[in-house]
Design goal:
- With about 190 residues, the protein is α+β, with helices and mostly antiparallel strands.
- It has one domain: Protein Transport Mog1p, Chain A (3-Layer(aba) Sandwich).
- Helix content is about 30%, strand content about 35%.
- The chain has 3 helices and 9 strands, in the order αββββαβββββα.
- The protein has helices at about 1-25, 75-95, 165-175; strands at about 30, 30-40, 45-50, 55-65, 100-105, 105-110, 115-125, 135-145, 150-160.
- A hairpin with a 2-residue loop joins β6 and β7 (about 115-125).
Length: about 190
């Protein structure tokens, strides 16, 4: 009986810990539903969470790449990070995952008092990626320094520019600022 009680106590602590961890992320933000957290190894690569709707996926990444004291806001290091994001998208095009990639100019925006460097690109995803949707996609990247790490949001939706979807993505970026991020990937 003692073993059963001990097991139940351990199980309830584990369940509470898992629930607390999941509670860090709202299950819904606007029309977007939480669909999971992913932690990367090594820890300096941080973690990501995904929210999605029928035709939009929003990945929120928080990481530091082992770089100490990344300044809040948009500094040179954050601008370099955006260039790296664009290089990854170009590499996906070279591999054949994307085609007809076109970048719109980089910009800066301020959302809820936080400055982001931003980019918008358009592409077609290929059958090579196993996706059901092979039409045109629009993708936004928002990057800022936050609490010693990079906060990167990449929002991709099916179709060309859509002001209504873009407004909901901006709201999602604002809500992502409320999450208690930890640069060590915890």
């Amino acid at each position: 009986m003692k073993h059963l009680v001990a097991f139940l106590i351990i199980l309830s602590v584990a369940v509470c810990t898992a629930a607390e961890k999941k509670a860090n992320y709202p299950q819904m933000i606007g029309q977007y539903e939480f669909s999971g957290e992913k932690k990367y190894e090594p820890a300096a690569l941080g973690k990501s969470v995904r929210y999605q709707s029928a035709d939009t996926k929003i990945d929120i990444y928080y990481y530091n790449k082992g770089i100490k004291n990344i300044a809040d806001g948009v500094g040179d290091r954050v601008k370099t990070e955006l260039a790296e994001v664009k290089n990854v998208i170009r590499e996906l095009e070279k591999r054949g995952d994307y085609r007809n990639v076109k970048f719109e100019g980089d910009g800066e925006s301020e959302i809820a008092g936080t400055k982001f460097i931003t980019n918008k690109c358009f592409f077609e995803q290929t059958a090579r990626t196993g996706t059901d949707y092979l039409g045109r996609r629009t993708s936004f990247s928002f990057i800022t320094g936050k609490k010693g790490g990079f906060l990167k949001i990449r929002a991709t939706y099916n179709g060309e520019s859509n002001a209504e979807v873009e407004k909901s993505i901006t709201s999602m970026v604002e809500e992502s600022l409320k999450i208690n991020w930890d640069a060590d990937g915890k």
